[in-house]
Design a protein that fits this description.
Layout lengths: L11 H56 L6 E5 L10 E9 L6 E8 L2 E11 L5 E8 L1
Antiparallel strand pairs: 1-2, 2-3, 3-4, 4-5
Length: about 140
């Protein structure tokens, strides 16, 4: 049997395998981080939409109070088509409580599984004009 004396390339094979393993591991970590970032961004967007919907509902109630200082109602607003049908992807539940002084508006915005609540307490003068509004986010 013939012996090969030039085997200098055989040592580079394990090095190539190790380098390929490291590169593949780095690619897997980067893909995982990219997916996590995408998911976090989507969650922030959806939560922000729920907050925007709640604010829109509170502002709608404030407009109703500005037109009629005795306005007292609980209602729903669909801010997107079919927003208040299941699943709730753009619905706001608004209630105006006149039992308290000042009036208290509670708007509950929902987008997918995210729910955000805003309360507004408008100060109304004797003529029925809104002079100031105390906003709170829950």
């Amino acid at each position: 049997m013939k012996q090969y004396t030039n085997q200098s390339g055989i040592a580079s094979l394990p090095i190539i395998i190790i380098l390929l393993s490291v590169v593949m591991l780095m690619a897997a970590v980067m893909a995982s981080l990219a997916e996590q970032n995408r998911s976090t961004s989507a969650d922030q967007r959806d939560s922000g939409l729920a907050l925007s919907f709640a604010k829109a509902g509170a502002e709608d109630a404030l407009l109703a109070i500005a037109r009629d200082k005795n306005f007292n109602q609980t209602y729903q607003l669909a801010l997107v088509e079919n927003g208040c049908s299941a699943p709730l992807n753009g619905c706001v539940n608004v209630s105006v409580d006149v039992g308290s002084s000042p009036k208290k508006i509670t708007a509950r915005g929902q987008y997918r599984e995210y729910v955000r609540i805003i309360t507004a307490e408008p100060m109304i003068d004797v003529s029925g004009a809104i002079t100031s509004i105390n906003w709170q986010q829950q």
